[in-house]
Design a protein that fits this description.
Elements: H1 8-11, H2 27-30, E1 36-38, H3 49-57, H4 69-79, E2 86-89, H5 92-102, E3 108-112, H6 117-124, E4 130-133, E5 153-157, H7 169-173, E6 181-185, E7 209-214, H8 216-219, E8 227-231, H9 233-242, H10 250-259, H11 262-286, E9 293-294, E10 302-306, H12 310-319, E11 322-326, E12 337-341, H13 345-359
Parallel strand pairs: 1-11, 3-4, 3-5, 5-6, 6-7
Antiparallel strand pairs: 2-8, 7-8, 9-10, 10-12, 11-12
Length: about 350
């Protein structure tokens, strides 16, 4: 079974319903439990020792108010942009709140299935949010023509959480136009080898383009909250006015600067290649189960799978020590979907054994 079919209005970007819990996230699957975590898309074994040391070294400066200038310059250099086109945020999630507060839109549209915080933030700001629901039969790929012409704020993930689909940069660039704010959530782009299909380098060249990045996934900094916005100078200034004073802590600023250094970028690139190899192993093990269908092709550090009775399977896996992410809280999916984080091969093999036990063997 697939997820519920969208209404015609929803498929065209019409008003969304409140049928799903937009504020459910993977951390809820593991909170307070001793489980092997396949529910949260943070790279295992992080942060590395050198990054911990850099963060710890910043603690001597906690008596002073945070100064983000060095970190902002480091991010700008990393992407070849002026510092005025960079805004540091308390994780990418804060950026969605800032956009909802600062960008004036008549018809905001979110492309789903994807991370649900953009829609939640827009709703909290009083917007009626339209949805463009991508279909499993199309591989959850985006056709730019599916986005309404009059949508003046469009949000899309790349690679998309939870589908792991990497949309072509050209397809996303086709959505940019004067009078429209195009928000591309690239929170997982640094886990893609070569960061292919990224639009970060086209900020300032495409009208209305806003690119969001997170440092929490690859570097294991979800508890520190650090991300950034890349956008035109005017947009960055508007978002900054919506921020409180000193929104990013001194340790988070130290982490941002460190993670943009050449050695860190090389380490992240190597990690992306390792993730791709580990993902291939996970896909090979999942292929052993005829009842498991994988969305894709997957490009992120997670995969989306469909199988009958996914809720019961999820509970049975939990009893065997594995936490996986339910899929039915993502608009456009239903109760037969689960998201699995990519882990090392030994962990994947243990998971495959547990899944075989639950499903009665390959």
């Amino acid at each position: 079974m697939t997820g519920p079919a969208p209404t015609a209005a929803a498929a065209r970007g019409g008003p969304a319903s409140d049928a799903v819990d937009l504020r459910h996230h993977g951390d809820a699957e593991v909170r307070g439990a001793d489980l092997t975590d396949l529910a949260v898309n943070v790279r295992a074994g992080t942060p590395p020792a050198w990054l911990k040391a850099r963060i710890a070294g910043s603690l001597d400066g906690l008596a002073a108010y945070p100064d983000g200038r060095a970190a902002r310059r480091a991010v700008a250099v990393r992407h070849g942009l002026p510092a005025e086109q960079v805004l540091l945020t308390a994780g990418a999630a804060e950026a969605f709140v800032l956009l909802a507060r600062a960008v004036r839109a008549r018809r905001p549209v979110v492309v789903h299935p994807q991370f649900t915080e953009p829609e939640a933030a827009l709703r909290d700001a009083g917007y009626a949010v339209g949805r463009v629901l991508l279909a499993e039969r199309d591989g959850f790929r985006l056709d730019p023509a599916a986005v309404p012409d009059d949508a003046d704020l469009v949000v899309v993930g790349n690679p998309t959480n939870p589908t792991s689909v990497l949309h072509p940069a050209g397809a996303l660039a086709a959505l940019a136009r004067p009078g429209r704010t195009l928000v591309v959530d690239e929170a997982f782009m640094d886990a893609v080898p070569g960061e292919r299909e990224s639009l970060a380098g086209r900020v300032g060249g495409l009208p209305g383009l806003v690119v969001l990045r997170s440092l929490t996934k690859t570097w294991g900094l979800a508890g520190l909250r650090i991300g950034y916005v890349l956008a035109g100078e005017e947009t960055v200034a508007e978002l900054a006015r919506a921020q409180p004073l000193w929104p990013v802590s001194t340790p988070a600023l130290a982490a941002a600067e460190a993670c943009c250094a050449p050695a860190a970028l090389a380490e992240a690139a190597a990690a992306a290649e390792e993730i791709a190899a580990d993902r291939a192993h996970l896909l090979a093990r999942l292929a052993e189960f005829p009842s498991v269908a994988v969305a894709g092709p997957a490009a992120g550090p997670f995969v989306l799978v469909r199988l009958p009775g996914a809720a019961a399977v999820r509970a049975a896996l939990r009893a065997r020590g594995f936490a996986v992410r339910r899929g039915d809280t993502f608009p456009g999916l239903g109760p037969d979907w689960l998201r699995l984080a990519v882990r090392d091969r030994a962990t994947t093999d243990r998971f495959a054994a547990a899944l075989a036990d639950v499903l009665g063997g390959p």
